[in-house]
Specification:
2 domains; Tscrpt_reg_AsnC/Lrp_C; 158 residues; Lrp/AsnC family transcriptional regulator; alpha+beta; Arc Repressor Mutant, subunit A
């Protein structure tokens, strides 16, 4: 899908204000409501807009510790990776699971837990028990310097 200037404006605004009313969005991009809504629907239908979500405050939910966990696997086979990924998908503490290169690890996880006891339970009771996991290295986040959900549209193609 080719994006013009107005499509990019719509995407920028929706990334920052996902609950903006169509009338307000139309006013901000210089369209009337009907064409604006058609463009938003086309962006949704194309898959560029993958969904809308509420961003929650982890600390207010009692989740005070974020960790980045590097996981090393014993074998680099599709079956071993599929098994690991299936086991990780069911753990609600895991917000991201990335298959990575350039490190001693195969995966990087971003996890949120209540405290160190909760992390220990996750680590020893679940992560290290997944077949094929041979190494775990954890780093704890001291401060969020930048937290973004908006993608850099000016750096994207189209």
């Amino acid at each position: 899908m080719e994006l013009d200037r107005i499509d990019r404006q719509i995407l920028e605004i929706l990334q920052q204000e996902g609950r903006i009313a169509n009338q307000d969005l139309a006013d901000r991009v210089g369209l009337s409501p009907s064409p604006c809504l058609r463009r938003v629907r086309a962006l949704e239908d194309s898959g560029l807009i993958a969904g809308y979500r509420a961003l929650l405050d982890a600390r207010k939910l009692g989740l005070s510790l974020m960790a980045l966990v590097h996981i090393s696997m014993d074998q680099h086979t599709p079956e071993r990776f599929e098994n690991f990924e299936a086991a990780i998908r069911v753990l609600p503490e895991v917000l991201e699971c990335l298959l990575i290169t350039g490190q001693a690890a195969d995966y990087q996880l971003k996890v949120w837990v209540r405290d160190m006891d909760h992390f220990q339970s996750l680590l020893l009771g679940k992560l290290t028990r997944i077949a094929g996991v041979t190494g775990v290295h954890s780093s704890f986040v001291l401060q969020h310097v930048i937290t973004r959900t908006a993608l850099p549209l000016d750096a994207a193609q189209g």
